[in-house]
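seq:
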Amino acid sequence: MKRNTLIALALTAGTIATQAQTFPLSLDRSKQAEVMMAKDQVLVSHDIGGFKMVVPIETGKRARGSDGDPDYAIFGTVSHDIDLGGKDLSQYDRLAMEILPTCEGQGVMNLNLSIDNSPASGLGAHLINLDNNRWNTIYLDISGIRRDHVDRLRFYTDQKGRNLFLGENLTYVAKGIRLLKTSAHYPEKGWATAPEAIAYSMSGYLPHGRKTALMGFDAPSFRIVDTTTGEVAFASRTRAVSDALGTFRVADFSSFKKPGTYRLECGTRRTEPFLIGDNAFKSSLWKVLNFIYCQRCGVEVEGIHGRCHNDVYSVRNGRKVSYGGGWHDAGDLSQQTLQTADVAFALAEAYAHERKADTALAKRLKAEAEHGFRFVLQQRLGGGWHASSIGLLHWTDGKPGTSDDITTVRTQDCAFDNFLYAGYEAFAAKRLDSDLAEKLRSAAIEDYAYARQRFVSHGYDKFPHMMEHTYNTSRSLFHAVMSWSASQMFRLTGDKKYADDAAAYARYLLRCQATGSKNPLLNGYFYRDTTKAVPVHFIHQSRDQMFAMALVELCKTQPRGADFQSWRGSLSLYAEHLKALMAHAGPYNMLPSGIWQAHEYDDGDGFARLHLFAPSNARELYDEQIVLGERIDDSHYLRRFPIWFSIFNGNEAILLSTAKAAAAMGNYLHDKQLSQIGMDQLYWTVGHNPFAQSLIYGEGHGYPSMDSFSSGEITGEMPVGIRAQADADAPYWPHTNNACYKEVWVTTAGKWLSLLAEY
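struct:
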């Protein structure tokens, strides 16, 4: 197997040194949250035995999905139950065990665990990530799981195909399964900072702007210590902050700007070293890039998978096109062409930012962007049609013409998709300096022409596939994307017809903006359409950044345009709205999800498209949830987290999308306050949150194990994100490792790179 050489980073005293490394980057489990739990004092231990489970790799049958979801097929499920007979386990807060998985050829394996209680607990399932061919010590905090009448512990695994397995079976041996009562407590929900913890940006802080940390204990003062010299570089008193979210102890060192490597100390407690400097997030960038690389489809990724899914096809008009390529969507092996395009665009943005600053990193970003765009170009089927998506849970043999070939990749010719493809292709054609540039230019012109023609003839269309992340697209977002795409075409070609289109499409967009209120919270955001009945919301995938990006591009490309003052005024309104939201963000500075209105369900179609798989009592649940937000007036509420009903929950893509909007506007308007909003979401992601956890595996410390059930744990993986519990409008981050909130997702990774490109 050929290893792919690249450059990784060693961070010392605020400088960046490079040395030869390889993708995939190795895992550092020592700083994983669950591993650190092993250090906690055990007060009571009760052993309940062990088991051996043998799982055949081959079944001799074709993978099958459910009748309602035939895409997501597996070969079967094998399980082992430990009968507990309805035992009350409430006195125990931890489950521990040792597990030895063995199968020749595979580096990473996993096993599912469910704690089956009567009545059921909603979050009793957990994915255990394992290293092959060694004993793994597993700790799971079960304090948040209902366990007063536990019928059984079920260990199970889905049969997903051969992948790199050389043997005939997967073997799992578990011993020392024990219930523990410990002296430690790790909260799963609420705004209070974890006890004894310091919540801070574990990657570090950019030199200018806000720099804070929160303590989960009483500390009258703090100091910033230079880790190179051991000297105190800054010292100050902490302050108590009380607001709607609670009372917090805050260390503020915003005035300290000297680049270097530091730690924060409060009495005897101290943080791990962190950077202050322009390169504070360079390490995370490399790690997230590693995650994207490891999600590659259609090619071998050493230790993770072989050449995969080149025998998965779309078929249209007798033409059969392989769907191998791009990147796997998430923890599963699904593919979405437009999502690959989203991530490829983010990589191209990052490349454009780094090509002069860090040539080694730029080279690697460019290579990854090209991998994505080759896939996007490959899926163009003619006449505006693209192969669009398929849901996959299993590995095929990767060999065309054998019995497990799949020919059910969805296809569509939506105008919205083609506008986005065209914009991304135009951007990349102008910036990648690649042998793909001319192909991208030609594709952009064709895709835009078709999109425009389709929009003229069919208007907004109906997005045909529920599982596509475009399904919730509003008319206002449609126009934002059209305008932004047209501006990119104008940049690429210089043809005024595209500039005229960009301006024309924006006129509808501006008519969708909230105006006229004296309260900035109720001004500046965008409604779904010109009726101004329902604001735009995102609850999973988000393209919230497109409103700002469209307006910024108009202002940049047409500074003498007839509507320039309207565009600039719209940006200013939106900017003031985001600033008003941040006044309610509390000391964590997590950007709220926005303004929600009473009775949004009266827009039946829009409501159903936003809340996929909503329960039958969704209206009642909506009414219960909205009033737990912060009341603005009789019909408007500010929600810090979206209103959620289904599995599609988790906040990270939403935060990073709106952060991108703020940062892009901040750069154009030279507004430091807007730029700070984007920075604050970076800091939240890597530890400045109530759980004092980094949400990037391998970055910082205390990062959780995540749900990557097909490809295993990967350095740089990012989850869907922190969610809320039931009706509450407060963070909820269960210890259980489950979809969708802890499932890894290339969308999140792409948005991280896109946001970093603004700094």
